[in-house]
Amino acid sequence: MYKFMGSNFFINQSLRAVLLSYKVLGVNLTNWCIHNTVGDILTGGETLQSVKKVVSKLEKRNVGTMAGLVVEGLESPSAKVLDDFTDFSIKTIRELTEGRPEAHFAFKFTAYVDTELMRKMNTAHEAFCGKILEISYNPSDTSVLTEE
After folding, report:
1. pTM of the shown model
2. Domain boundaries in the chain?
3. Mean pLDDT per 10-residue section of the chain, whose length is 148 residues
């Protein structure tokens, strides 16, 4: 599952799949399916309040946590949408760090930029890795770097 989620196909097509699922199954059923499959494995909650509850529970057991703000990128998002998510991110950081000596966060970059830019960056990354670094992404290649 994790290998598939890290694949270029998944990264480049996941937003389309979710949007199609929203149209076919509806938002609530799609979100329910995500939450009750892979989402349940990867998340401690869907809202800031539920995440805070999980963080507090784990903190009492001396288990560290990392809050991850994961939002799928949007095609041509407006400045207001990006600003709103930035404001939400800042609010989340403030609430999860309040009264704690430390806190750890992970941010999915696609939440803050247009997906077309991410596609271009992915293409450039693949070209750099393949042509400059000579890294092979061929699944049958068991070496780390290609041989010359």
Report:
1. 0.52
2. 1-42
3. 69 81 91 77 73 84 80 78 86 86 78 80 88 77 57
